Amino acid sequence: MGAHFTPRRVQGGCQALNQQELISTPSLGRRIVRVVPNVSGVNKTFDYLVPESLKNVKVGSIVRVELQGRRVDAWVIDEVVRPGLIKFKDVISLLSEGPSEEVVQLSQWAAQRFCGPVRAVLSSASPSLRIKKLGTRHSGAARKSGQRGVVAEAEELFDNQRGGVLVWPAPRPLRPVLESGISRGRTLVVTPSVGFARTIAQALRREGLSVALMPDDWQRAAEGVDVVVGARSAVWASIPELKSIIVLDEHDERLQDERSPTWHSRDVAIERARALGIPCLLVSPLPTVSATHWAGSQAVRFVEPASGDWPSIEVVDPYSDLGDDEKPQFGLLSSRLIEVLRDKSKTVVCILNTKGRSRLLSCKACKAIIRCEKCDAAVIQNEEGILECNRCGAHRPATCQSCSSNALALLRKGVAKMRDEIEKAALRQVVELSAETTVAANAASLVYIGTEAALHRVSSADVVVFLDFDNELFAPTYRAGEQAWTLLIHATRLLKGSSKALIVLQSQDASNTQYTDFVLPDPRLLIEREQKKRKVMQLPPYAAMARVVFADPTFNPADWAHCKLAFSSSVKTAEFLVRAENDEALSQGIAQLRDELSTRFRCYVDPMRYA
C-alpha cells in the first residue's frame, strides 16, 4: 500500500507512512488503483495493487483493503502508473458496484468546490445495498418529441444545449415542463423531497415510461431507464448516456446538504451538465440569485402570468388599527387575524418557527423591529449591550433606528403558548402539530399551528397564517428573503384548489417597504432587486462565503492573513464567517489553511444559517 502525495493537500494531505507497512508484493506488470478509504477522519488517498483474480475492479468500484492493520471499505477513484520497484498491498476483494467514472470525477470536483471530504460525497453517490454486477441495460420506451404538450419557454432553453432558468408558477402542473427533457432521451429529475419525487415517478410509470426512483432504484438507474427521479442525492445517480437534467423547485433549501461538504444539487447539476455537454434546466416560481446569475439574462424565461398564480396575500399589523393608549401586549393577535380564525368554514394553518433564524428585538416605544441600518436584517444584542448584525457584521449602540429609544424588548414566542391564545380567540379547536402529534392533519374546518413543517403535514387548507413573518424576512442571513419566499411557495401549493385561498402575514413592522413586494408578487422585479442588493454588498454569488468551525477555541485569524481569506466573528466561540473573492479563491484558501494548521476544523460553504 502506498500513500498518494500531491504538492497541495486537497483532502487534508498525506503523512509519510512506515515503509514496512507499505511493502507486500511486487507491482511490476500489475494494475495499481488509487482509493479513498471509507473511514471517518482519514482524508487521504492510497494506492493498492489489483490481483489478477479481481479483473472487474474499475474506477468507482467499492473494494475491501487493509489499512493500518484493519480491513476497511474503499472507493476506487483512479488507475495510476507507479514505478515497478515500489511494492504495494493487494486489494483484498471487490465488494460492490459503485459510482460511474463520470460521477467519481464529479465527486472530486464537489469535494474541492465545497471544501469537504470526498468520502462523504462518494457515500451519497453509492448504492445503499451491495450490487455484485449490473444487469442488461434497459432500452427504454420508444418516444417522440411532441408526444405530449410542451412549454415553449422550456423548449427554447433545451435547444440552446446549455439550458437555463424557467420561472414557472407554483400552482401550475409540471408535467409539460418535464416533457421537454424526456423527449430528448434519458433525463435526471431532482426534487427537494422524496415525497415529491415519488409522486412524479408514479405518474410517469402510468404513462409507460421506465423510471428509477432514487435511492432505492440505484441499480435500475445505472442500467439505464427513461427517467431517474429523486431528492437531492439523486443528482449523484450513475446514469449511462444521460441527455438532460431538470432541477425542480430550485429555490428550496432542502436541495442543499447541511453536512460538510455542503454541496447543493443545483451547483452539482450545473457542473455535471457542463462536463457532459447536455442542457440543465432549473425550474422555480421564484429562482435564487445564484441560479439567475449562472444562467445570465439571456437564459432566464418567464412564462406569461395568469390569474391564480398567487393567492390573495395580506400583511396585517396587530397595532395598526388601535390607538396609542390601546396598543396590546406583545403576542396578541391582530383583529383581522381573529376574524379569519373565527370563520368556521375555513381550515386555517398557523406557522410559527419557534427556533427561528434570529433573536428578534423590538422597540418598546414605537414597536418597530430593530434592524440593521446597512442591510435591513434583524440584529441581536451581545453581552456588552451592543447591537450586532450577523449578515453584514455592522455594530451600533442599542437604540431604535426609528425613534432612537433605547428601551428594547426581546420577542420570544412559543408554539404552545400561541396555541392557547389562538384557541381563545378562534372559539374553536386548535391542533398543535409536532413530532408527537397523533391526530391526522387532514380534517376540514380546523385550525392547526406548528413550525414550517406543518406546511408539509396538512393535506389542504383555505388560509395559511404566518404569525411572526418578521422572524423570517429579517433573519441575519443573506438568503433570508429567498427563504421567506420559499415558505410562501409552500403555502401557495397547500392552498391549491381552495376557492377561499388566503395567506396572512402578521408583522410588527408592516410599514417596511419590503412587505409591499408580497401583496402583488412580481418575480421579475424581485429577482432584479435581490441581484442588485447582493452585488452591492458583495454577497454570494458575487463573492464566496463559508462558516468555519475550529476545534481550537484559541484560533487567531490574524495569523492567517496570507491565506487571502477575510474572517469575521460569529456568535459562537471558535466559529468564523470566511469570505473570499470567488469560489476558487475560497477553495484555495481553505486548502492552504488545512495544509498549515495543526488542528482540525469544519467548513460549511455557502451556509444556510450562520447565526
At the first level of CATH, the class of the largest domain is Alpha Beta
Largest sheet: 7 strands, parallel
Distance between the termini: 44 Å
Mean model confidence by pLDDT: 85
Helix content class: 25-40%
**How many runs of DSSP E, i.e. beta strands?**
30
Annotated CATH architecture of the largest domain: 3-Layer(aba) Sandwich
Beta-strand fraction estimate: 15-25%
Q: DSSP helix count?
A: 17
Number of structural units classed as domains: 4
Sum this structure up briefly.
The chain is an alpha/beta fold and 611 residues long. A hairpin with a 6-residue loop joins strand 20 and strand 21.
Characteristics:
25% helix, 611 residues, single chain, 7-stranded parallel β-sheet, globular, GIY-YIG endonuclease, alpha/beta, 6-stranded antiparallel β-sheet, Rossmann fold, 30 strands
Overview of the structural elements:
The chain has 611 residues and is of the alpha/beta class. The chain has four domains: 2-124, PriA, 3(prime) DNA-binding domain (GIY-YIG endonuclease); 152-302, Rossmann fold; 312-360 and 411-520, Rossmann fold; 544-605, RRM (RNA recognition motif) domain (Alpha-Beta Plaits, 2-Layer Sandwich), CATH 3.30.70.330. Helix content is 25%, strand content 21%. The protein is built from 17 helices and 30 strands. The strands form seven sheets. It has a seven-stranded parallel β-sheet with strand order 11-12-10-13-14-9-15, with helices on both faces. The chain has a six-stranded antiparallel β-sheet with strand order 1-4-3-6-5-8. Helix 2 packs across helix 3 (118-124).
